[in-house]
Design brief:
The protein is an alpha+beta fold. It contains 34 helices and 23 strands.
């Protein structure tokens, strides 16, 4: 699908609302810090570069030093999730996660601190664990701050009644967001039917009644029980001195008293299922769906790895049996699966989406028949090897990034022990065809699955699910494999990046930027952007352009789609290609040793695509299904209407914003001949930019790129299609979306500004304080934190580097009965910023957070490659970033207020709201919370 503002807004919304909040209130319990000097940490074990220590209070500490990134990730995992909740407490673990962003004794405004330190934070709750993390610039002060923050909120968080009052409405808003998605609810219904007793049958978000009514005393008791050092694992990953860091951790966390309470263990075991179960869901929606769940062993069980391989054999695309049986035959538009390595015996959940014009009964029959055939038609060696290559690629690439490993280990800590991550990888490597076939026969039984109604069976064939093994014996003396190669301590400052980047131009005009740096695991990232066309050649080509790019990885003249995928798995490479009307972009992640083969393969798919007809039809179905799914969604309808109003171009113009119905018709009508002609007329590298960042030899890489792309010329020239400022009328439009529990709000302005405008830095910082940053922005503090009206709220500001065209846009999700309150709060906060401006302290903290955040962004090699490629097109260097940051650092409150007053005019604002407002008229507005500070994700 073409990239739209909808995708950008939703991404920002999830970031702004996917984590927790703040508070100030009397502590729910007295401080639990011990005054005595804690005993020295004890080293427990080391596995592949990760070392475990144990403190005197039984806190487990994992240190994963990686000097290649100028960042540190601190992640605290508590071994508590929805599995640990009692009757009436569903969703409590998640609700408590929100409250821990409300403040603690020594950190009363956590969102402000996170923003001031430029951190990328979040928290999440799952079946077996809850975690809190922040990634920040690697300095001793930042690390000390993060450790003090996490140690303080481990035992000194407020968990106060007034914060629960305001945060409950935010969590309820998050619950309503999930209720908008029939596919999500179908998965919940299947699991709740599959599990009669175990809490894996409960959604982590919880029941609405429990969210709304849980007493603060139960939350406080839950907190005091599970948020203790002996139930937590602290992980630090990134650039730090290990000896200093473990000493600092011991000085902060080690002073917390060892708990005296005995931690209870969960003991509910799900009995063997004694017959197929069925459930039916009826709601407003646009896509039909079928889902099937099987009970399978715990993540620590030896069978778990083989089940993972089986899952890939069944559901992977395009080799998976289900993909071939359903998608290739057009009985379904897509298939998907979810397999989790859980603490207790878990589940394998498989599903398919079916367009309304197709038969749901036929798709369901084919799905079940294909699953049954996994037993009657044994898996092959080729299937096992292909699945193994896919799984191991993901694991190996994860191991090349310390921050990825740190977050991935939370899941395995929840499953029982972090070392299971490595043990499971070893088991995947060792899994045989016989192992995979055995687990298929053992667990893919009709009596062990849930798809619908109960069917009496005279002789039930029950699947006996083994208990989780003893971890102490299982992991005794386990050391894992050799750790990945370490890299250099790279300085991500603009000056250093520019000094080390080698730029050149190929004979055909393609611009090349190479940034050599030693990376963990010898990782390399690359971006290739092909630019093509002009206004005339791009007319009426919106979907054709998108389909052309999406087809490139689906087959070349030398390799089929499956062969391309197999090669990328073998080479441990992630490659994606996406396109819009004026360009196509390929992104690559691989390793130094495999880079030549990967670039050769990418050059092949770019220069000699086959455009197979059957792949076009499968791709068409995917796009049509995606559009159908959006037709009743509040966010899609609101953002489509907003884009159409803000971009008043004629139909067919490459800048035109189509309706969903138009987009559907265009995808349906696109032909293979149009795609081939579009490629033949426009694709080439004469106007391309390529950037490579990572463990490379610049001379060897430049020679290879020249050989692969230097002679690939564009058949026609490239003339950029301008996007000048568009003056549009103010409006306030409401769109009805029946039977949708959540509403969507979007409001904004077109701005006559380019990013070299003198007011640009002030607008950047002003937006950061108004609706950007973390949850302490003006809009978030009022709408989410104080009034609890929205799970996700924020703003964005952009200005073109080429045209005098900018955009200021705000957005929020909310309950439709709060429509009037939310719009009023939005207007009041914007008006207050325009009238009163910002304080010196706000400006100071915003500068610190914004500038540190940009440094963190430059420390990420993938985004850095994208930025270098974009700079080649703009004929800029990273010095531009340095100049912008200097200007931002020099801003005064008066300059920021003046810029906002100049460009943001509430009388000209465009507002679009979509939701079930008619239905909400009979529903009382949600009560105003009594707390004075507020919500989380």
């Amino acid at each position: 699908m073409p990239v739209t503002t909808r995708a950008l807004v939703l991404a920002a919304l999830l970031i702004s609302g996917a984590a927790p909040v703040i508070a100030q209130t009397p502590a729910a319990q007295p401080a639990a810090n011990a005054t005595a000097q804690p005993p020295a940490p004890v080293k427990v074990t080391s596995v592949e570069g990760i070392t475990e220590y144990k403190l005197g209070n039984d806190l487990r500490v994992l240190l994963f030093p990686d000097p290649t990134k100028a960042t540190v990730t601190v992640n605290v995992t508590y071994k508590v999730g929805s599995r640990n909740e009692n009757y009436g407490e569903t969703g409590m673990a998640h609700l408590l996660e929100h409250l821990l962003f409300k403040g603690s004794t020594n950190h009363t405004n956590i969102p402000q601190e996170l923003t001031s330190h430029g951190a990328r934070p979040n928290g999440s709750t799952w079946f077996d664990r809850t975690n809190y993390f922040e990634t920040f610039q690697a300095t001793e002060d930042n690390l000390k701050w993060a450790l003090e923050l996490e140690s303080d909120r481990m035992v000194n968080s407020f968990v106060a009644k007034k914060d629960l009052d305001s945060e409950m409405t935010v969590v309820r808003n998050e619950f309503e967001l999930g209720e908008n998605d029939p596919g999500n609810i179908l998965g919940e219904r299947v699991l709740s039917t599959a599990y009669l007793w175990h809490n894996y049958g409960h959604s982590t978000i919880g029941a609405r009644a429990d969210i709304e009514n849980v007493p603060i005393e139960r939350l406080q008791g839950f907190y005091r029980t599970y948020y203790q050092p002996d139930n937590a694992v602290l992980l630090a990953a990134g650039r730090f001195d290990e000896a200093k860091t473990i000493a600092l951790i011991n000085d902060t966390f080690g002073r917390i008293a060892k708990p005296t309470r005995a931690l209870a263990t969960t003991y509910t075991a799900e009995p063997a299922q004694d017959g197929e179960r069925r459930v039916e869901l009826r709601r407003v929606g646009d896509l039909q769906a079928v889902a099937v769940a099987y009970h399978v062993p715990a993540g620590a069980h030896p069978d778990a790895a083989a089940v993972g391989v089986l899952d890939a054999i069944l559901a992977d695309a395009p080799s998976g049996r289900l993909y071939k049986a359903l998608v290739e035959t057009r009985k379904a538009s897509s298939v998907h699966s979810q397999y989790l390595y859980l603490h207790d015996p878990g589940f394998l959940l498989i599903g398919a989406e079916v367009r309304q014009e197709s038969s749901l009964s036929d798709a369901q029959s084919t799905l079940l028949q294909t699953l049954d055939q996994a037993v009657s038609q044994p898996v092959t060696k080729e299937e096992v090897e292909r699945a193994r290559a896919t799984l191991l690629k993901q694991i190996d690439l994860t191991l090349n990034s310390a921050d990825r490993v740190g977050l991935e280990l939370s899941e395995w800590i929840g499953a029982g022990d972090w070392r299971l991550f490595f043990l499971n990888r070893d088991r995947i490597k060792a899994a045989t065809v016989e192992d995979v076939q055995r687990v298929a026969s053992a667990y893919l039984k009709p009596s062990n699955r849930t798809v619908g109604i109960f069917v009496p069976t005279p002789k039930p064939d029950r699947a006996a699910i083994p208990a989780a093994p003893d971890l102490a014996g299982l992991l005794k003396n386990y050391t894992g494999q050799a750790a990945a190669a370490a890299g250099e301590a790279f300085d991500p400052s603009p000056a250093n990046i520019d000094a080390k980047t080698v730029r050149s131009t190929l004979p055909n005009g393609m611009a090349l930027a190479l940034l050599p740096k030693k990376t963990r695991g010898e990782t390399v990232f690359a971006t290739i952007t092909l630019r093509f066309g002009d206004l005339q050649r791009l007319m009426n080509m919106a979907t054709v352009s998108d389909l052309t790019a999406d087809m490139l990885l689906r087959g070349s003249t030398k390799h089929t789609r499956q062969q391309i995928k197999d090669e990328l798995d073998r080479l441990k490479a992630r490659v994606s290609i996406a396109g819009s009307q004026p360009q196509a972009t390929a992104t690559i992640e691989t390793t130094r040793a495999n880079l030549p083969e990967v670039l050769t393969l990418v050059a092949e798919v770019l220069t000699s695509p086959a455009f197979p007809a059957d792949e076009l039809e499968a791709l068409r179905q995917e796009n049509l299904a995606a559009i159908e799914q959006q037709r009743t969604e509040p966010d899609a309808l609101a953002q489509t209407a907003y884009q159409r109003h803000m971009n008043p171009y004629p139909t067919g113009d490459p800048r035109y914003s189509p309706t969903l119905d138009e987009l559907f018709a265009w995808y349906k009508a696109a032909t293979l001949e149009q795609i081939r002609k579009f490629y033949t007329d426009l694709y080439g590298a004469s106007n391309a930019q390529m950037a490579i960042v990572g463990d490379i030899d610049p001379n060897e890489t430049a020679a290879l790129v020249g050989k692969l792309f230097g002679n690939w010329k564009s058949p026609n020239g490239y003339t950029r299609v301008p996007r000048p400022y568009q003056a549009v009328e103010a409006m306030n439009q409401t769109i009805e979306t029946p039977d949708k529990a959540n509403a969507f709000f979007i409001a904004g302005l077109n701005l006559k500004m380019r990013d070299d405008d003198p007011d640009y830095p002030a607008m950047v910082l002003g937006n950061y304080m108004l609706g950007g940053g973390f949850l302490n922005s003006r809009l978030a503090s009022r709408i989410r934190q104080k009034e609890g009206l929205s799970y996700g709220v924020g703003s964005q500001f952009q200005a073109s580097p080429l045209d005098q065209a900018g955009m200021f846009v705000t957005f929020a999700i909310y309950a439709p009965q709060n429509e009037t309150k939310l719009e009023a709060a939005f207007k009041e906060e914007v008006a207050r910023a325009l009238k009163e401006g910002f304080t010196d302290q706000e400006i100071k903290e915003a500068k610190s957070g914004y500038l540190q955040g940009r440094q963190v962004s430059r420390a990420q090699d993938g985004p850095l490659a994208n930025r270098l490629a974009q700079d080649l097109f703009l004929k800029r260097t990273v010095q531009w970033d340095s100049d912008l940051e200097t200007k931002v650092a020099a801003l005064t409150p008066a300059q920021v207020q003046t810029a906002l007053q100049k460009y943001v005019d509430l009388s000209k604002i465009v507002i679009i709201k979509a939701g079930n407002f008619a239905g909400a008229q009979s529903t009382p507005a949600q009560p105003e919370p009594t707390g004075t500070s507020a919500p989380k994700p």
